[in-house]
Amino acid sequence: MFDWESLRVFLAIAQAGSLSGAGRMLKVDHATVSRRLGALERDLGVRLVDRLPRSCQLTEIGAQVLRISMEIESSAFAIERAVRAEQTPTTGRVTLSAPPVLATNFLMATLGQFRERYPQVQLAIASQAQSVSLGRREADIALRLYRPTEYDSVTRKLGSMPFALYASLDYAHLASPDQWEFIAYEEQLADMPHQKWLVNFAQGRSIVCEVSDITTQHAAALAGVGVAGLPTFIGDADPQLRRLPFEGEGFCREIWLVVHADLRHSPLLREVMGFIVEVVGQRFGG
């Protein structure tokens, strides 16, 4: 019988496309990944992966084993979720995945209130721009800025996050809209709705600075670099920024709460979700 841990390593290799990529996913070194793969292949008596100079390619039997392995992994996660859902104590650790703009600029400010109300709960907030898999237990609960589409999840819209244009009080072209220069996302994020709205509004005016996240856009605006499109809960709260008047279509992002259907009745998660619904609703629900 083969080692289940070796099967987990094989799955990571298939997902990452290389031994080194699998090592980064699993937080182990390249040698460990190679050793585990070799052990699995010896136990099964077949070659699962062709090792190329910069990548790995599944053999025909490797692809068959991958499909079965994914089913096994899915069943294993389902067992974990079923057990967690039946745990009645409202004590333990809960991982909440949230986009950086909410994690850094909003949720952190609510942690004191959360700790006072639920001192027995350890809340881990994972600030992630990418969506995580709730089915794979990469997080217990998630906040997202779009309507989730996973078929096995339960979702709820909590509110909307409106945006506006801001510049430093010291910005040289504050009173001259035709000379405004804009702070935008870097090129690899060009498909983001926020970026499309800003570029459309700029109408050919210069993009003077490109960064990777809203927190850095905020800092660039404060430095007088140019005009940034920021969530109003950030921009309006900063006395060193001025909200700029503009004509045209406004922009906002919806805020959604999502949990795997298997865990929606977990007493522990329900307490955390109740708190999130409350604080997000108070700030963004209007």
Automatic annotation (TrEMBL):
It comes from the Bacteria. One of its GO terms (biological process) is DNA-templated transcription. Residues 2-59 form the HTH lysR-type domain. CDD domains: PBP2_LTTR_substrate. Pfam families: HTH_1, LysR_substrate. Coiled coil: none annotated. InterPro entries: LysR-type_TF_proteobact-type, LysR_HTH_N, LysR_subst-bd, WH-like_DNA-bd_sf, WH_DNA-bd_sf. Belongs to the LysR transcriptional regulatory family. This is LysR family transcriptional regulator. The lineage of its organism: Bacteria, Pseudomonadati, Pseudomonadota, Gammaproteobacteria, Pseudomonadales.
